[in-house]
Amino acid sequence: MQISIMPEVQRKILIIDDDPDLCTLLSKYLGKNGYNVDIAFSGSKGIEKIKEARVDLVICDYRLGDREGKDVLIQIKKIDPSIKVLIITGYSDIKTAVDVIKLGAFDYITKPLIPDEVLSVIKSALQSAPEAKVQKQPSEKEPGVEIPTGDNEFLVGKSGETRELYKQIQIVAPTDYSIILYGESGTGKEVMAKTIHALSKRKDMPFIAMDCGTLSRELAGSELFGHVKGAFTGALADKEGHFEIANGGTLFLDEVANLSYDVQASLLRVIQEKIFKRVGGNKEMSTDVRIIVASNENLQDAYKKGKFREDLYHRFNEFSINLPPLRNRKTDIPLFAKFFLEKTNQELGKNVEGFDEDVMHAFENYSWPGNLREFRNVVRRAVLLTETTTISSKSLPWEITNTPIISPGINGDYTPQAGLFDETGLKDAASRAEYETIMKVLKQVNNNKTKAAEILKIDRKTLYNKIKVYEDAQLK
Fold first, then answer.
1. Which of left, alpha, beta for 61 (phi over 0: left; psi -120 to 50: alpha)?
2. Residue 294: strand pairing partners
């Protein structure tokens, strides 16, 4: 007699998809594996079912007939943040994956579905611990070090600049002040906005982030205020905007200086009057959100140049915070290195114990133009490539290992690594001159290869190819 092994407590799964065949097949498969499965053929019906009965996990298609899966995800998290959500789509682009994960999805899988893969992700989701809502306290071993409430993507260091930064955050977070966050790319502006939200009285309400850097005027208006069906080409259904979704919570606008002047005017009206209309609609709707904005560009300079509305700037500028670049926080580098190492070990199932001494020296002497984001990616790459117990310099990108060995010579010339050019012919002399020029320019622009390529009057691909040639020569 065959015995079916059932979960101790049968878990409830809701499938939201407008494809009946997929729903039927997936429902039967999960039912055979011991799950209680329900189906909804639209986002609206799915939301109704979640309100009516307990659900442990939702499998939701990204593109539904009545709304997008990310909108359903946001609604689910407002109803019950503990519900795990998996987003399924045939549109396997990275931006979609990043968007839904940021909004709270547990994972993202693409069609065609592989049953065993789906089952594995479901098991991982249901076994994972619920998201912590309590701020971790500083460690006794490393005083002053903490993980920001609401996000553990970045670590808070203990340098003097960091301590001063968090004093400001603790003062302003409980208020409803609008805040401008200034900082270079990769310094963690969105993480800081989440931290402020998590320390505020709005912490149990939605946190919604919007990247204003790449949106057209029409799309920006739709994302902010929503639209009604038929408002423009492609508006096939009514859509909620971020001001509706974030009502009662916090709205974070990244790269806000990129919004067009007319969208800025609409934004000013919403902030002043707390009412708005959907694009193409006539109904006035009320909203109550806290605004946090971020910009690489000084908004005061932007309005003086006529690129940004002065009245909107003053509405935003109730409080401003400057996030220091990583190169100004050298004492925090060992802490960040350990933190990213531990997270990557967990992610990859590895047990790399630490870094060689020369690797830490390279970290501390590198300029980190991409800041914390670049640092995290460097460590993730190194852990992936490392087959020993510690990370060595051979697992680091070329620009980091090369930085310490390029030193100024007479009259500020840069001397390449000894042995890189061993021949004495004219061709070798030309290669040496080219190498020195590339390294000098990279040094001047803090290893920003886009700027270096512009200065050298070559395209980025050519620059990368030349760097690869010299990197291979060093390894020989």
1. beta
2. 181
- The residue count of the chain comes to 476
Q: Match 């974030």 to its residue by tokens.
A: 246
The half-sphere exposure of 256 on its side-chain side, counting CA atoms within 13 A, is 32
93-102, 173-182, 423-432: range with lowest mean pLDDT? 423-432
Give the β-pairing of 250-254 and 36-40.
Answer: unpaired
In 111-246, the DSSP E strands lie at 179-182, 207-211
- Tokens describing residue 93: 């682009």
Query: Quick count: other Cβ atoms within 10 Å of Cβ 254?
Result: 19
Single pTM value for the model:
0.56
Please give the pLDDT value at position 472. Answer: 57
Residue 152, helix vs strand vs coil: coil
At 272-330, the pLDDT tens digits run: 899 999 988 889 999 999 999 998 888 999 889 888 999 999 999 999 999 988 888 88
pLDDT of residue 424: 53
Give the mean pLDDT of 397-417: 52
Distance, CA of 155 to CA of 148 (rounded, Å) = 7
Residue pair 210/223 in contact (Cβ under 8 Å)? The answer is yes
354-101-79 Cα angle (round to 5) = 130
**The pLDDT of residue 147 is above 60:** no
Average pLDDT score over the chain: 80
Name the amino acid, one letter, at 452: A
In 344-447, beta strands by DSSP E: 354-355, 390-391, 407-408, 414-415
**Are 453 and 459 in contact, with CB atoms under 8 Å apart?**
yes
Question: 439, 209, 181, 143: which is closest to 321 by C-alpha?
Answer: 181
Q: Are 243 and 266 in contact (CB under 8 A)?
A: no
Residue keyed to tokens 């020993």: 388
- Asked if 324 and 184 touch (Cβ cutoff 8 Å), the reply is no
* C-alpha 458: how far from chain center: 31
Q: Which two tokens stand for residue 163?
A: 């301590």
Q: Above 50 in pLDDT, residue 1? A: no
For residue 258 the two structure tokens come to 């990129």
DSSP assignment letter at 327: G
Distances, alpha carbon 443 to alpha carbons 23, 362, 399, 402, in Å: 56, 15, 10, 10
Runs of H (alpha helix) within 128-241: 160-172, 189-198, 217-225
Name the 3-class secondary structure at 155.
Answer: coil
Residue 250 CA to residue 233 CA, distance in Å, equals: 30
Q: How far is CA 132 from the centre of its chain?
A: 19
Q: Which residues pair with 60 in a beta bridge?
A: 16, 87
Distance (Å, whole) CA 345 – CA 349: 5
- Whole-number Cα distances in Å, 192 to 71, 196, 385: 24, 6, 31
Give mean pLDDT, residues 26-37. Answer: 91
